[in-house]
Structures are given as C-alpha cells and as structure tokens.
Amino acid sequence: MQAPAQKNSDDPTAALLQTEPAARTIGGEEGMNVDEMLTRFAGEFGPWQLRQFLLTSLAWILCAFQVMAVVFADRESARPVPCPVGIRLGRAWWLARSTVEEWGLTCGEKYKVGLAQSAFFVGSMAGAAFFGHVSDSFLGRKGVLTLTCFLLTVFSLLTAFSPSFFIYSFLRFLSGLSTGGVGLSAFVLATEPVGPSFRAAAAMSTFHFFSIGSISLSFTSLLLPSWRLLYVATSLPSLLFLLLALPFISESPRWHLVHRNLPAAMQIIRAVAKTNGYSIPDRAILVHDADPTRPVRTASIVDVMRSHVTRPRLILGFLINFLISVSYYGLTLNVANLGPEIHASAILNAVAEMPAYALTAVALRWHGRRPMAVTSMWLCGFFCFAAGAFVKAARMGCAAVAIFAVAATYNLMYVCTAELFPTEVRNAALGCVTLAGQMGAVAAPVVVAVGGKWGYGVFGGCAVVAGGLGLRLPETRKQPLYETMAGLEGGEKGKGEAG
C-alpha cells in the first residue's frame, strides 16, 4: 500500500494533481477531488481497495460462464445425429450432451448454432448500452450490478429448461442482456475507488478473473456433460455472488459525488482511509469539479456526442473496439477449432491470455496507454499475416503470438475508455464502445466460417487499421480522472491555453 503524502516538489504525483483544478479553500476547509483525496489522505491502493477489487472482479467469472457456455452446450456431437430430428432421448432428455444432439442441428439446420451465439452477443450489445446509461444515472453502479446478477441467475436457470431451439435462443439473448450490465458495472466499481498510480494496473488485472471463469467452466463441463445441467451450474455462481459478495461491495464514491451526495461520498472515503490505516483531517472535503451553481442534471451519451472534446474520442473508441473484437473473437474461435479436444483447447486458450494481462498491468505503470495499445495491435496484425502465410506448427505458433497481443489490446481499450471520459458518462461511454465490441463478436464467426486461412488476413487487417486509428487517441497516463463533462472540457481548455 502506498502511503498518502502531502503535495510537494518531491512528490511523484504532484504533476498529476496539478493538472486538476487547484485545491480550494472554502470557509477554512480544503476542497479537493477524489484522486487528490486518495493520494494525500486515504491511500491509493490499500486493504479497502483490494477487498473491493477482489469482490467486484468475481463478477467477471460470471461473465465468462455465460460467454463460454455456448462452446460446450452447442458443440458438435461425437456420435451420428439424425437430421433434422436429433437423437430421440425420451425421458432421458436431461442427458443430451449438446443442443446439436437434442434438436438435430446438423445438415441444413447447422446455421442455427451460430444464430444462438449471435443472439447472446446482440443481447450483450443492448445490455451494455442500456445498463451503461442507467448505472450513470439513477440506479448507480452497485444497483445495476445487483439487478443484472439477479436477472442472470433467472435467465441462465430458465435456459436449462428450454423446450425448443427458438426459446433457447431467446433466453440466450436475455442472458446476454444481463451479462452486458454485469461486466460494465463490475469493471467501474473495481477501478473508480483506486488511486491514479494503481488504477490502470487494477483495471487490467480484472480480466484475469474472466480467464479463471473460462478455465472453471471447462472443468465443470467435463463433470457435467449434459448441456442442461451445465446451464443449471452457470446459474448458481450468480446467486452465490448476490448473497455472499454484493453485501460487502460499496457504491463508487465518484458516483455519489457526481449526484451531489457529498455526505455519502465522504463516508466512503473516510471508510477507505480508516481501513487503510489513515485518517482524513476535518479540513479536507470533497468538491465537485463543476460549477456548484449548475443545476443537477443527468448527463447521457447525447452530451458526449455534443462535446467537441469527447465526440472524437467516442467515435475512435467505437471503431477501434469493433475492429479489435473481430480479431480477438476470430482468433479465439480459430484456435479452438485447431484442437481435437474442445476442453483442452478452451483451457489452453484462457491460460495463454493471462500473461498478456499480467505484463500489460505491470508495464502500464511506466509506459503510456497509446503506444502500448498501438504496438500490440500492430504486433497482432503482423503475426496474423504470418499465420496466413505458414502452415501447421508455424501457423499455430504465429496465431498464439497474435492472440497474446490482441488479448492485451482488447482489455487495454477498457482502461483507455474509462480514463477518456468523466464519471457522469463513463459507464454510458463504456457501454457504447462495448456495443461496438459485441458487433465485432457477431461478425467474427462469419469470417471464421467462410474465410478459411484467408481469415487471418482479415483479422490482421482489422488489427493494423485499429492501430492506425489508435494513434489519434489522446494519451491518458498521468492525466486526472474528471467527474463531470464541464470539468473535462475546462481541463482540456486549460491545457490548450497552457500549450
């Protein structure tokens, strides 16, 4: 844990803090923003933030269960399946290994397998957009996480009782809708209370839990080969998270501050300081970074598009996330198809991504977000092109390096997006770029199915173009995390005048 320190010429965070509006004296009290309060008095990453980080990041395991369930539930059967009726199971309908077996999704019905997968990602798109806005407005981050975890429990359990393929696809859509809200809320709750020196590393580290979830689901599928029992199993962790983890998760103090609930925000900050072993002097108070006379109004994605500062950021983030998602999901599906054993392939794929998250989390403390993102995108593109040119072992090796690079980029864009937008629209902006990512996820299986070895060229081209667009993104390292649109625009204007 880094000890808070008073601001002085030797403090390495002084440059960061000076980019925010200077601390203001109000009636003998010293007003400051959340980042400055954490750095000087409460601790940037201590026991309180560690507990919040671990508890909220567990939600990514739930997301992994839902995203990866289709890999096992909709897998091709190892035994002949009559089409279009499927294997007649009678009273043993709970024992079907996959939807393909039970509903005869072979021959001319094979396209339906992709339809169910697309339905889930379409739901994720809608959920990211809707719940992103709701969590920035009246319901809050914790409220959305609570609601979506409950819905995820219900829809995942109902999926296990699907009487037909179309009901199954509809319930997968609803599960995707819930998953889109779970991931966004958990990410923001885990990172917003962390100080600026550790925020990027904490953000990248959340994605280890997604890999853990993928590995856990692979072993669960080995124990429960029935696709219906597998969906029952995926509903239980959401229920346990609701009962055992959520009561100990705190709402973001930044969200309370944006909604002018200063007592609640200060109560959380004082709890952070107490748990971390520090105390906040009575003279120190949190202040809003906007004009206090401005009426309280909920900002939305419309405000993001109206602003000359945030509009290009959102458009670039949308395009980059779409392109990177095509590469990420396309490479993931291709690697799974290379292995003869689906469980081993899924486990190895998840394990291969974890070093990328770890190395990126460490490197972010010393290197900028933009050069790291651009470099990893172009590295992915180069090895995708190489994979298309080689065969067998050489192709597998190049594809593995490409996945390593694109995994780092895919999750680094979450960090960049969170830092590019202020608190009052952060989840809405994350929801918008996540929607773009889900669009890429829907497109990737089509490229895999029809592209063959030329698919690597498509994935490489997407990564290279995304890297070029990434050069246009502003650098966010050592920049303040603003609370409002007005604060961000004022800060950017100040930098322009200083320049």
Write a structural description.
InterPro entries: MFS_dom, MFS_sugar_transport-like, MFS_trans_sf, Sugar_transporter_CS. Its main location: membrane. One of its GO terms (biological process) is phosphate ion transport. Keywords: Membrane, Phosphate transport, Symport, Transmembrane, Transmembrane helix, Transport. 70% of the residues lie in helices and 2% in strands. By secondary structure, the protein is mainly alpha-helical. It folds into 2 domains: 30-288, MFS general substrate transporter like domains (Growth Hormone, Chain: A, Up-down Bundle); 299-499, Up-down Bundle (Growth Hormone, Chain: A). The chain has helices at residues 14-18, 34-42, 47-57, 59-73, 99-103, 111-136, 140-159, 165-191, 199-205, 208-223, 227-245, 253-258, 262-276, 301-306, 310-338, 342-363, 369-389, 392-420, 423-451, 455-470, 485-498, and strands spanning 24-26, 29-32, 284-286. It has a 3-stranded mixed β-sheet. The model is unreliable at 1-23 and 89-93 (pLDDT under 50). α3 packs antiparallel against α8 (165-191) and α15 (310-338) packs antiparallel against α20 (455-470). A hairpin with a 2-residue loop joins β1 and β2.
